[in-house]
């Protein structure tokens, strides 16, 4: 450690730590509520054996939180340069792990993505996020994006896309989708906004193609394109070929939606999207989760039913209530007030991370900061979105709230590497 | 890179936009839209209704008539049925295979996951026969509940029956609390006292989890109520007397109503033809009900309350009392037996007073009594005089509880008819009718209609010398006595001395030589019966026989009215039957030498008709 502990401590970004601790504490309260059974109320202070207590998620979550704090200390003590220096090494190890995991892992809940080391189960995909973020930031720092070097961009794209492809191969599509969040970080570092716009447009077309009859959609798009040409003949002369190809691509996409929907997506994924569009499509199947989740949150009202008073989550109407659907417990027991508090905490954290990222002197630190913000934001979006029926059901946790060691550790690592980098920023020379 | 720094605002704007969308959406589903709360309650709250123990029914001597016994319904949950061996199953249940298949189909149509009844109303022995083998048939279960069972083979019409609630009932606001499939009193006392017999339902709100498993009371049972068992009914019916009356009426059509005049309590209530009350309970009840309904003898018809007949000569008593109260005749008024006015069926001495007239049932005498009461000379126009007179007369007659419902504790009661001036105005035209048109009323014939119950009540009124208590079956609900309206004395507006003047004539009907009701005499036991015979002209066939009486004349304990359809002259059949009933009630049994009257009364009504 290059400086004295006191000085070092002063350079830590305490607001972020505070928000982090608040979220983890609130998360634990809700995990406790979600795993609380009114039939067999457990007094946390009762003298139970370790083995018996290990049957409760809330107790295990205490262990995960404790180890996470140990992890934080380690992360802050490790020389910040290690993250920079070993980024590619870590990346290489991670890729190997992702490749071998499906072959050596026992199948758990339909996917071979968990490695078991003694009593601890780890999901390499969880850690792929921050390692990829480190590697991408490291690469980003080594290139000059102003030159818009196509080769560099290709390498960066490959670097980012390789882990999710391996994760998809291990049947953890939800975790793979998270890597889409990197686009937001790359956008900050100079990626053309056109890419974001085109992706947004493609998403919009996909959704519209499912909602609106195809011929209407094509007709409307053709008319709009036609109007552009009528009013701007210059565009017609110079960009006719481009316009025609855009038109062709859109038509291809509109018709491709069905192919994508029926042939590329797996049946359960198809269902999840169908339910999003029409919640009553499958009320007892996939729609059940979404419907029950909305009922749980909706029944919370303004101020909620009170701690441990939630009926929908207590009586197992909501699935995965302490992991992916933890927000249901928040919504049901703490009401709109609790939901808003959670959202405000996330916003505070994200804005603070952006602030921290922007004050980094190195491209590496800044890019990494944006990656952290983007990854947390993506989880926040998709997780809360799915519980209130605004996003398809994708099995990813709510950072710091959901029960689970892997996810807590991975988000903690993600965040505190940034704080470690930030704490040393004064010593950080612009080396690149 | 300076220009790129502005992008941090774009990134943060994207964060905030999503947060705003979430906050708005959450505000909508959590605060604005109440439907999620309802859905949550529907999810977790199960309303369990506890049907209370239905009140029992006792007779006046404390003998239990109607009680509850457990019956069992065989329930089926179609989803849980696995590879049903239909043939063996049908052998076990002793049911035709088609019936089981149809019932299974109906159950599947109702719900695949909820249990629905496959076979209802199994008795305990029937259950025992199948219970052990039921383990081989997953998806079938037994549900027990309480059903009515009967300790008596009589009184079916008064008791009524209990059945499952029909869709028509469910729509009435009175039955708003009933659930489909619940049981309630459909007719008779079971229906009239439904509220008291039913008791109060208990409701428990239970929380259930996603698999329907109970998770305890909702808010520690704050909203739960305990069920309160129904109240017992103590009837005024004497079940021995009832059984005796039903025995006497075997094979005939008609009714017997016996009332304790001092209280208005109904002692016997016979409607013939009758059926066993157990017919309308238990397995196969629906089929048996249809058999009763389609029986041409109409056993379900509650004759004492619903059959209205002209009262015949019994009505002469009311006619005389009304005229005496008006002051137009006295007990010593004599009228000639003028056969030109109306035919007199009996050959008799000059009716120089009311006693002789009643004893001989002299038609011309009562013709002239009513004419005196109606034609008062209020108008010089004899049509108008008859109109005014009949209106006045009718008002007085109706005070005897005639022409309107008495208000007995049973809902099917008919009003009967005491025709009004307006009735004749409508039928014959205004001022197109006079006393000659309506005179048959004076002898209880023609348009007039009264029920058996009303006739018994008239006799109770005479026995009380001028008042009556509304007849009723239930002398006590639990320990609380009868309903308040049955404690209220109704006076008929005729002074007691007029009754005293009349009663000796009625005694003479029974006890003096040549009286029309001699066969009703209980003089050998020192019991003086005051009665009146009647023969109801019947345009459709043989005349109906009636006899109405009370006894003992000086301290009446029973008033009785007997109607026997198509049995001709009342003195021949109805009078001895009434006598046996009164003897049974007053003495407790029938003297051995009087058993011949039981024999005499057996057989069809036609045997009593004198063929000329």
Which tags fit this structure?
heterodimer; A: 432 residues; 2 domains; two-stranded antiparallel sheet; disordered C terminus; B: 612 residues; Beta-lactamase; six-stranded mixed sheet; five-stranded antiparallel sheet; 36% helix
Explain how this protein is built:
The complex is a heterodimer of chains A (432) and B (612). Chain A is built from 19 helices and two strands. With 432 residues, chain A is an all-alpha fold. Chain A folds into two domains: 5-190 and 354-423, no CATH class; 192-264, no CATH class. A two-stranded antiparallel sheet of chain A has the order 1-2. In chain A, helix 7 (124-142) runs parallel beside helix 19 and helix 11 (193-211) crosses helix 13 (233-264). The longest helix of chain A is centred in the last third of the chain and has 33 residues, at 326-358. Chain A is globular, with a radius of gyration of 24 Å. Residues 428-432 of chain A have low confidence and may be disordered. Chain B is of the alpha+beta class and 612 residues long. Chain B folds into two domains: 70-150, Penicillin-binding protein 2a, domain 3 (Ribosomal Protein L30, Chain: A, 2-Layer Sandwich); 239-285 and 301-608, DD-peptidase/beta-lactamase superfamily (Beta-lactamase). Chain B has 23 helices and 20 strands. The termini of chain B are far apart. The A-B interface holds A 38-39, 146, 184, 187-190, 292, 294-302, 311-312, 314-317, 331, 335-336, 339-340, 343-344, 346-347, 350-351, 354, 358, 370, 373, 377, 380-381, 384-385, 388, 390 and B 1, 4-5, 7-8, 10-12, 14-16, 18-19, 21-23, 25-27, 29-31, 33, 35-37, 39-41, 43-44, 207-211, 215-216.
């Amino acid at each position: 450690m290059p400086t004295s502990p006191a000085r070092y401590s002063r350079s830590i970004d305490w607001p972020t730590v505070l928000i982090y601790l608040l979220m983890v504490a609130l998360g634990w309260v809700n995990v406790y509520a979600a795993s609380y059974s009114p039939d067999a109320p457990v007094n946390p202070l009762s003298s139970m054996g370790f083995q018996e207590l290990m049957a409760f998620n809330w107790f295990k979550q205490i262990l995960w939180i404790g180890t996470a704090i140990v992890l934080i200390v380690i992360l802050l003590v490790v020389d910040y340069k290690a993250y920079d220096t070993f980024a590619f090494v870590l990346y290489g190890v991670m890729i190997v792990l992702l490749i071998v995991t499906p072959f050596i892992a026992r199948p758990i809940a339909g996917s071979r993505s968990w490695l078991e080391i003694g009593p601890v189960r780890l999901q390499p995909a969880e850690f792929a996020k921050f390692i990829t973020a480190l590697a991408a930031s490291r690469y980003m720092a080594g290139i000059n994006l102003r030159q818009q070097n196509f080769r560099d961009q290709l390498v960066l794209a490959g670097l980012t896309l390789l882990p999710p492809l391996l994760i998809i191969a291990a049947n953890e599509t939800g975790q793979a989708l998270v890597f889409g969040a990197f686009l937001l970080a790359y956008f900050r570092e100079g990626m053309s906004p056109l890419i974001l716009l085109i992706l947004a447009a493609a998403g919009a077309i996909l959704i519209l193609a499912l909602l609106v009859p195809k011929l209407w959609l094509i007709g409307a798009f053709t008319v709009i394109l036609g109007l552009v040409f009528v009013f701007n003949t210059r565009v017609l002369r110079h960009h006719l070929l481009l316009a025609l190809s855009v038109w062709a691509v859109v038509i291809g996409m509109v018709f491709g939606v069905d192919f994508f929907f029926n042939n590329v997506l797996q049946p359960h994924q198809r269902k999840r999207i169908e339910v999003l569009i029409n919640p009553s499509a499958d009320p007892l199947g996939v729609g059940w989760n979404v419907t029950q989740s909305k009922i749980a949150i909706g029944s919370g009202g303004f101020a909620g039913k009170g701690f441990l008073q939630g009926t929908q989550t207590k009586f197992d109407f909501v699935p995965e209530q302490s992991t992916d659907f933890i927000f249901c417990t928040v919504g049901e027991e703490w009401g709109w007030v609790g939901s808003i508090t959670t959202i405000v905490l996330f916003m505070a954290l994200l804005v603070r991370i952006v602030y921290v990222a922007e004050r980094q002197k190195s491209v590496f630190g800044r890019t990494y900061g944006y990656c952290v913000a983007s990854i947390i934001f993506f989880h926040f979006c998709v997780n809360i979105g799915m519980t209130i029926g605004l996003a398809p059901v994708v099995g990813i946790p709510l950072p710091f709230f959901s029960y689970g060691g892997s996810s807590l550790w991975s988000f903690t690592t993600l965040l505190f590497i940034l704080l470690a980098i930030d704490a040393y920023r004064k010593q950080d020379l612009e080396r690149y | 890179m300076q220009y790129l720094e502005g992008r941090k605002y774009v990134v943060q704007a994207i964060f905030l936009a999503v947060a705003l969308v979430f906050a708005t959406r959450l505000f909508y589903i959590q605060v604005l839209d109440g439907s999620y709360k309802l859905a949550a309650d529907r999810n977790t709250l199960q309303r369990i209704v506890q049907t209370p123990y239905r009140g029992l029914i006792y007779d006046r001597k404390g003998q239990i008539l109607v009680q509850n016994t457990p019956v069992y319904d065989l329930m089926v949950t179609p989803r849980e049925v696995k590879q049903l061996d239909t043939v063996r199953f049908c052998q076990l249940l002793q049911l035709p295979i088609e019936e089981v298949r149809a019932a299974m189909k109906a159950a599947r149509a109702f719900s695949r996951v909820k249990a629905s009844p496959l076979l209802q109303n199994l008795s305990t022995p029937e259950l025992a026969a199948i219970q052990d083998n039921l383990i081989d048939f997953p998806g079938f279960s037994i549900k027990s509940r309480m059903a009515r069972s009967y300790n008596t083979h009589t009184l079916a019409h008064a008791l009524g029956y209990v059945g499952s609630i029909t869709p028509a009932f469910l729509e009435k606001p009175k039955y708003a609390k009933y659930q489909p499939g619940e049981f309630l009193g459909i007719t008779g006392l079971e229906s009239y006292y439904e509220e008291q017999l039913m008791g109060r339902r208990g409701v428990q709100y239970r929380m259930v989890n996603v698999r329907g498993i109970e998770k305890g009371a909702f808010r520690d049972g704050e909203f739960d109520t305990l069920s309160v068992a129904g109240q017992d009914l103590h009837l005024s019916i004497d079940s021995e007397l009832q059984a005796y009356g039903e025995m006497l009426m075997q094979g005939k059509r008609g009714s017997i109503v016996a009332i304790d005049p001092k209280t208005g309590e109904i002692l016997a209530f016979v409607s013939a033809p009758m059926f066993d009350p157990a017919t309308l309970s238990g397995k196969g009840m629906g089929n048996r009900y249809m058999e009763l309904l389609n029986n041409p003898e109409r056993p379900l018809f509650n004759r004492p309350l619903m059959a209205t007949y002209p009262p015949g000569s019994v009505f002469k008593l009311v006619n005389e009392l009304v005229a005496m109260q008006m002051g137009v005749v006295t007990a010593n008024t004599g009228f000639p037996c003028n056969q030109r006015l109306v035919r007199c069926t009996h050959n008799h001495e000059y009716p120089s007073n009311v006693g002789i007239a009643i004893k001989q049932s002299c038609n011309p005498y009562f013709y002239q009594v009513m004419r005196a009461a109606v034609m008062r000379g209020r108008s010089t126009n004899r049509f108008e005089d008859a109109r005014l007179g009949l209106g006045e007369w009718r008002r007085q007659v109706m005070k005897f509880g005639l022409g309107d419902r008495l208000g007995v504790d049973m809902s099917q009661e008919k009003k009967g008819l005491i025709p009004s001036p307006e009735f004749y105005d409508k039928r014959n035209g205004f001022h197109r009718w006079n006393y000659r048109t309506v005179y048959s009323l004076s002898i209880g014939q023609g348009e007039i209609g009264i029920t058996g119950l009303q006739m018994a009540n008239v006799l109770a009124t005479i026995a009380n010398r001028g008042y009556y208590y509304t007849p009723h079956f239930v002398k006590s609900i639990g320990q609380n006595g009868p309903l308040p309206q049955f404690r209220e004395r109704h006076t008929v507006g005729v002074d007691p001395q007029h009754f005293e003047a009349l009663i000796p004539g009625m005694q003479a009907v029974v006890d003096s030589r040549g009286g029309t009701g001699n066969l009703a005499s209980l003089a050998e036991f020192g019991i003086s019966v005051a009665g009146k015979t009647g023969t109801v002209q019947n345009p459709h066939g043989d005349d109906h026989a009636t006899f109405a009486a009370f006894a003992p004349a000086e301290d009446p304990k029973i008033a009785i009215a007997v109607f026997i359809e198509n049995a001709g002259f009342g003195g021949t059949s109805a009078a001895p039957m009434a006598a046996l009933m009164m003897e049974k009630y007053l003495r407790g049994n029938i003297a051995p030498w009087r058993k011949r009257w039981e024999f005499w009364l057996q057989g069809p009504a036609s045997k009593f008709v004198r063929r000329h």
